[in-house]
Write a structure and sequence with these properties.
Layout (H helix, E strand, L loop, with lengths): L1 H39 L40 E7 L2 E5 L6 E6 L5 H8 L3 E6 L4 H13 L3 E6 L9
Parallel strand pairs: 1-4, 4-5
Antiparallel strand pairs: 1-2, 2-3
Length: about 160
């Protein structure tokens, strides 16, 4: 009988140990879940009853040019282009989007070579009024020597824009 008592004592001790172990594990799980809840609720969020409707990001409209160039074959010119107006002894560069004058050179004070160096774009459209015909040859030579593709045509003296 002694052996039986020992076994029952050992089983009682084992059952007691398992009870204590399971109680400790339950406490550890409770602590972990409380920590997880406190970390997860760092920023309060409200439950939404309805999903938000998808709203597209506002897209800034691309500015539309007031003038566009097209080749003789009908293909639009997509490379950078400077629009120049030569009248009353002055060369003006106009912004194709706003139409405003961005640069102005006086042909009596600035050489055509200097103007060509400051412009430096792939394409140049030059509108020439009658008062600029005397300076036209030197201006065209300087603009073409800068490597730009140049197109020009006469306009009235009263023109305010090259187009």
């Amino acid at each position: 009988m002694r052996r039986t008592r020992r076994r029952s004592r050992q089983s009682v001790e084992l059952i007691g140990f398992l009870d204590i172990l399971s109680a400790v594990m339950v406490i550890i799980l409770i602590v972990i879940s409380v920590l997880a809840l406190s970390l997860g609720s760092g920023s309060p969020q409200q439950a939404q009853s309805q999903p938000k409707p998808a709203t597209p990001e506002p897209v800034e409209p691309t500015p539309v040019a007031l003038v566009e160039l097209v080749t003789a074959g009908g293909t639009p010119v997509r490379t950078p282009t400077s629009f120049l107006l030569c009248r009353a002894g002055q060369v003006e560069r106009h912004d194709p989007v706003s139409g405003e004058i961005t640069d102005r050179w006086d042909l009596d004070l600035v050489s055509p070579t200097t103007i060509a160096e400051e412009i430096k774009t792939a394409n140049i459209y030059l509108a020439v009024a009658g008062s600029c015909f005397d300076d036209l040859d030197s201006l065209v030579i300087a603009l073409r020597s800068s490597g730009s593709s140049l197109g020009y045509e006469p306009v009235e003296e009263s023109a305010r824009r090259p187009w």
